[in-house]
What does this fold into?
Amino acid sequence: MDMVGSVASMTGSVDPDRTEWDVIVIGGGPPGENVAAYAGDGSGLSAVIVEQELVGGECSYWACMPSKALLRPIEVLDTARKLPGARQALDGRTVDVAAVLARRDAFTSHHDDSSQVQWANGAGIDIVRGRGRLTGDRTVGVTLPGGETRTLTARHAVVLATGTRASVPPIDGLREALPWTSRDVTNLHEVPRRVVVIGGGVVACESVTWLHGLGSEQLTVIEGSQRLLARTEPFAGELVAEQFGKAGIDVRLGGRAASVRREGPRDTGEGHVHGGEVTVTLEDGSSVTADEIVVAAGRTPNSDDLGLDTVGVAANEHGYLDVDDHLTVTGSQWLYAVGDLCGRALLTHMGKYQGRIAGDVIAARAAGRPLDDTRFTDRADHGVVPQVTFTDPEVGSVGQTAAQARAAGIDVETVEYDIGSVAGAALLRDDYVGRANLVIDHASDTLVGATFVGFGIAELVHSATVAVIGQVPMSTLWHAVPSYPTVSEIWLRLLETLRTQRTSS
It folds into this structure.
């Protein structure tokens, strides 16, 4: 039984004859779930989610949760290898691949969304299975799993939360080769011995990390730009590439695939090798042969079949929906877009944040209340987006890079420090590799960006996020004393270095 078909009969608590709700949400991922929950919480508004796949969305089954479940055992084992006393106990042991995959499957509930549906129903949210699209003012047509159609009407708002899908670039022969996308590589059922990865962003780098940890012997990364993780500070991608190289991973920066050929491509199912050997020929004439190819070359918004034309709305040139800071679609008073679809920040936590704001806005507008409280306005998407890339070393950042800040006309000063020289970091593992920097608005003396690279830095990002969103002066941060010995001591070292820079200039 297929994944969708196995749950298609579950419709939550919906009366089959019901046609009207206060709020209709198309898309049942985390952003859509949050909109529905926040719109109804304490307001009495009714909400229904229309979902064509699994309630919980990409994050729960094909992205955040399975990828981090794959990475954690690898991280723990690698850490032990770097610690005398623990290293000796390993005696050359490697991860138990079957056990890692089983744990991954447990975190994705074996692609069974029953618990998510139960949560929704418990929160008073109905679920309708099927493909939803706009058919008119506050009206949604749903094509049900059996092919019949159903028309739903919203009293107050329709929210579009349909997300994005993996992009497959127009490389000769690539689509015909049936490459793995993010869904395949997070839900792999076998570990290919040789893998070539197209792309050098977050998905590519994290995928390479767990493929290497699970036993892929030959990994090649082909990235068209001159560095990995191109949207971060330059040193972040450089450190990741350096560690990849030490691990025997072939990183080809500035390389572009010209063509792809595969022997006997076959649709063998998600996470299974899709046929015979794959040969990737680059523009410089060199080639790479592998057992599987992974495409991690960006995302495409799911806006092409939403019926936007029926309500006089159009996606922008990139396929995303433009919204204001109340998450209302431009040109509409009742249509909202949250999550990846609005193109502001393609991250689960940011989509959930947008969902919380949109839900509160919908409830306030329905009650005739003004939107003068800060919780009704999206602030974080404007230069305060946090993100962690779970490579080895980890890359965490919030706000703007120095280059981005300067491009925005901000007079900035920067400060950097080697995280490995901090006592708390050195205690975590031998051969600690890491670096941190702060980007400071010279005029206001407040933080506008921060980047941390190193083992265990993921939990540092939120402190930086608070500093950026709170516009905390650097003089005040001096009195935020880090506990010793922790990696957080990097804050003190950065501030000390900043003081030295300023007194010597």
The longest strand covers residues 149-160. Confidence is low (pLDDT under 50) at residues 1-12. The longest helix spans residues 348-366. The two ends are 69 Å apart (CA to CA).
